[in-house]
Structure to design on (428 residues):
DNA sequence: AGTTAAATTCAACAGCTGTTGAAAATCAAG
DNA sequence: CTTGATTTTCAACAGCTGTTGAATTTAACT
């Protein structure tokens, strides 16, 4: 049963609605009834398909997580194929950020909502971080390995803190909160992902070299 | 009526409890009854003192906002007094980050909770950002002015994006989520603010110079 | 068409939510 | 102590919450 060119099933509509609402208001700021209403579906259907409310949230998170991981893995491998086996810091940072930039510039609004959802989970202090650890950290460790090779004199501690800063800048950008629009009085736009990521690459690259370089 | 060396009033206990719980679970993840229970106070007292639930949240946010602004303003002025009128990028970044580092390393746990609360608001996509704009952006603009002088060839757009990256790295650090502990398998600690901010300064400084330097 | 399973809705539940008006307690001042 | 104001509690409200079991519709297959 091909699902291309086909209106999304009710099950998928529930995840679409959950994706948007959870990203905007967080886990506790959304009710199953709001999700059902936006998906034009009965309240009980979410429980039937996914179980408890937390399972709805997890299903929303898991639906696209593997796709992002695959894109980022391919991005790193392709960079290694074209640039040789020893990558520069800029190569690694570029490989890490470009897939996210492409997703957020995508016409499909689902990916924008999903990126904001991941940002919400990443900056959440409670149970959400366990989801991040299980689903994203294995891939992040591949990038950490590449960084260790590009910066052989750096301590693991410094490398992790540098990734932490990258993660923070990336998270706030993915969250797409509109803060920069206000602060810059309209000169910058939260959804100008072209500029956001193109400038983030040299920023993070030189930051890492400053902290971890020889 | 002096309030030093005096056990905190019930009104203050409510704000202390709200500070901790809102920082941990977000606005919708906390009920007035939970706040009242932690403050060992009746439910209705929060409404009596502050009004609606949103007013409790705003009061929690406003209680310490001006103190942070004053500290940061003094920090910038002191840097200008000692370093002369033309500050380096590193001076400005240092003046911006050091007060927060001091607050989070403070023995008073209230400030740690408050820093996490500010991080929550800053990465929230909804009404919270208005609070940030009104209470923090005036001070941030003073720092932006200093940065414009230190980087005269940078466009305002690039400068704002650089501050955005700084803000992201800072927000994730203030949030103190424990993510870095997991990813680094115990090598780094979210609450090692000494290392966190000492490394953030060169990271952000060189990032800004790379994007906005000549 | 008939049968079986899956998908979807309906109806209802016990429990919790923010909020408020009245009662009670505490405090300040004469 | 009496008075009046402020603070704190009590009790209750209407409305919303997640969840579930039964009923109904839709789909799949013979």
């Amino acid at each position: 049963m091909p699902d291309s060119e086909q209106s999304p099933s009710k099950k998928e509509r529930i995840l679409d609605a959950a994706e948007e609402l959870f990203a905007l208001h967080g886990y506790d700021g959304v009710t199953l009834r709001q999700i059902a209403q936006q998906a034009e579906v009965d309240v009980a259907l979410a429980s039937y398909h996914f179980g408890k409310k937390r399972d709805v949230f997890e299903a929303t998170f898991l639906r696209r997580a593997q796709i992002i991981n695959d894109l980022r893995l391919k991005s790193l491998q392709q960079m290694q194929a074209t640039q040789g086996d020893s990558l520069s810091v800029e190569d690694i940072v570029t490989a890490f950020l470009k897939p996210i930039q492409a997703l957020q510039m995508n016409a499909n609004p689902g990916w924008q909502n999903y990126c904001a959802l991941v940002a919400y989970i990443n900056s959440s202090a409670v149970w959400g971080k366990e989801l991040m650890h299980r689903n994203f950290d294995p891939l992040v460790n591949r990038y950490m390995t590449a960084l260790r090779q590009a910066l052989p004199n750096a301590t693991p501690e410094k490398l992790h803190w540098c990734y932490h800063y990258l993660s923070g800048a990336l998270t706030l950008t993915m969250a797409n909160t509109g803060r920069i629009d206000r602060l810059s009085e309209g000169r910058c736009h939260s959804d100008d992902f072209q500029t956001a990521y193109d400038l983030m690459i040299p920023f993070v690259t030189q930051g890492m070299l400053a902290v971890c370089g020889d």
About this structure: Chain A touches chain B through 63 residues (CB under 8 Å). Residues 53-83 of chain A form the longest helix (31 residues).
